[in-house]
Amino acid sequence: MRHTLILLRHAKSDWPDGVADHDRPLTARGRCDAPRTGAWLVEHGRVPDRAAVSTALRTQQTYELAAEAFPVSPEVLLRDDLYAASAGEMLEVIRQTPEGIGTLMIVSHNPGTQYLALALADDANPELVMKAHAGYPTNTLTVLEFDGAWAALDPAGASIVAVESPRG
Fold this sequence. Notes:
This protein has helices at residues 28-43, 57-67, 87-95, 112-120, 126-134, and strands spanning 2-9, 50-54, 75-79, 103-108, 141-147, 159-164. It has 168 residues and is an alpha/beta fold.
């Protein structure tokens, strides 16, 4: 079965005094950019069946604002193990996905999100791999596709088909 994986780094977040990292909200720019991600996903036929979202406030806000554009509401899993997760930890979350899920979206943090995108990428689209490597600012998404089971997804096992940073 063909699967699609969407990796999204949260939108621009604030650093308010006295607020723990986990509880940092989005900035005004982040609140403006996140809906553009949802619109991009809808426009390109990439609405997820399931979203696994870090429990951090900024990732939840990013997902909620993006999802407002979705014509249907995907299943949403809030995952503590995606907060500040490494690429390997994110891959373990992905491998737990049931086969009935065609498109999975992960909303998490850097550097893990960028490292995972690069680790999963095969050499089918070198220009997009270089784009993901060159920079991964807030509100960047990478769309990857692969054939096979979620549980069997390995490094270099997917093709990057898009790298975008929707901005206002």
